[in-house]
Amino acid sequence: MLCKRSSQWHRYIDLNKIFISNATIRRHGATWWSRDIQINRFQIGHHHRQVSSSTSTMPNFEALFKKIDELKPAFIKRLADAVAIPSVSADEAHRPQVVKMGEWLAEELKQLGATDVELKELGPQPHTGWPLPPIVVGRWGTDPAKKTVLLYGHYDVQPALKEDGWSTEPFELTQKGEILYGRGATDDKGPVMGWLNVLQAHKELGLEIPVNLVFCFEGMEESGSEGLDGLIEQEADKYFKGIDAVCISDNYWLGTKHPVVTYGVRGVSYYEITVKGPAADLHSGLFGGLVHEPMVDLSYLFSKLVTPKGEILIPGIKELVAPLTKEEDALYDAIHFDIPGLEDNIGSKTIIQDNIKDALQARWRYPSLSLHGVEGAFYEKGAKTVIPATVKGKFSIRTVPNIEPAKLDELVIKYVEDQFKTLGSKNVATCELVHAGDYWVSDPSNWSYRAAAKATKAVWGVDPDFTREGGSIPITLSFQNLLKTSVVLLPMGRGDDGAHSTNEKLDVPNYIEGTKTLGAYLHYLSEETQD
Ligand SMILES: C[C@H](N)C(=O)N[C@@H](Cc1c[nH]cn1)C(=O)O
Ligand SMILES: [Zn+2]
Ligand SMILES: [Zn+2]
Question: What Pfam families does the annotation carry (predicted)?
Fold first, then answer.
């Protein structure tokens, strides 16, 4: 293996617990959700656009929301400053920029009045030896009478080059109408700035934040969150002692209109197949037909991993997937989304499934295998007649309950090796795990979800859909297990934001109303009875 797997804290999240609790919801109706809210928003098969009649004392957000509106230009400037630092964690050349971004973030926190701001160093990255960017930690308040919330986000981004097809410079935040374009706008600099914006608005108003905050911002999320597991373990009884809830804003609504609160993510196991042949690239006229070509071997191996309809061809994986129960299946009926919405998100009509339930299940509760690219192959424009000497094929598998990552590695690596043997090639092939992160599924009925739902309703005027996320946030399960606390995902951006893609964007309303939602969540959390 190229790198050690993240620690084995995960494992079995009992999905039945969730579904049993959902069944309980239906049986007990309003009593499940909250004693304050008379309508069961999570009720399976019902449209939750119905307005809930809340009898809770809703905090008066008028001043806070007005202040956030007033600060819009400053907040956009903050996001522009963040986007301008190309903190791409994937390659060595950019690593100093990731570190710079961490330092910038720490400085912003200090300027706003956060205390105990530190850059927790993680040492060298195990398999590359490159220095890992620090984890930025800080505090806001240490009142023992208040609840304490850990806010996690990441300040690294995916790579981006203008020539990939961006219409604007990826590291210059560009506003066109009500849309902010730039790498990291939605993933995850916008949401991280959202938390800073909340601090600024409270500070300027002289308004108390009713919970203590602990910040934990990492710079390696897009590259496997290396080092963070160890830090959380090490600091669980020190810096991270006494955390009552964790909130992460690092995913997206399903579509463009309806807000969501998220209670699950898929895991990801990322692999690399290396095929080594000649000592150097060769002239295909001179050597084509008489040498085993690494690209040909790799293309064959790629074709044996997944079908064009998305079916994973590696035996044994399907059998690891938790069976779909009737109760879980029914949850999908309540979601406000459709195939045209999904087509809008991707900008084409190329969805494999023909109904939204199957498509969402494919995204949330079944594994998928994606081919990402080939290092070492000719890719520029033109027609170079080369036989690449060594190629590295990259692919990943999104994991779901109950796929054990170590078991998955065994199945994948043995299968690739066996397939390679059938070729009779004299090249040398290896398949290795690059990084892995666990899946996570939570029970969306607890106090932190109630607070998130109320905040969403207060800002957006509708009850959120409860969703799972097809992407991965590798550290989520570690927070839950190591800090023995519940985690909620409260996203800011829309489903068409183009995270990881060209022309990534964040809509101004999502940035501003999203900041309000994060702020309101903290107020509702302080009022909510912890269960
Ligand atoms: C959902 C989150 N914003 C995200 O984009 N996560 C990444 C994490 C990752 C793991 N390996 C590389 N990146 C993702 O889901 O791809
Ligand atoms: Zn992210
Ligand atoms: Zn991402």
Answer: M20_dimer, Peptidase_M20
Distance (Å) of CA 154 to CA 97, 290, 396, 460:
14, 49, 21, 25
Q: Give the sheet arrangement for strand 505-507, strand by strand.
A: 174-176, 179-181, 505-507
Residue 468 marked ligand-binding: no
What is the interface pTM, i.e. ipTM, of the complex? 0.98
pLDDT digits (tens, 9 = 90+) for 44-68: 222 232 333 344 456 689 999 999 9
**Cβ neighbours for 362, distance < 8 A, ≥ 6 positions apart:** 310, 352, 353, 368
Phi and psi at 509, nearest 5°, equal: -60, -35
Residue 46 in 3-state DSSP?
coil
Report which ligand 1 atom has the smallest distance to the Cα of 471. Answer: 15
Predicted structure pTM score: 0.88
Residue written as token pair 């080369």 = 386
Q: How many residues does the chain have?
A: 531
Assess contact for 133 and 89: CB atoms under 8 A: yes
251 lines ligand 1 (CB under 6 A): yes
pLDDT (tens digit, 9 = 90+) per residue, 424-449? 999 999 999 999 999 999 999 999 99
User: What domains, with CATH codes, occur in the chain?
Assistant: 15-265+439-527 (3.40.630.10), 267-322+365-437 (3.30.70.360)
Tell me the CA–centroid distance for residue 187 and ligand 3, in Å: 5
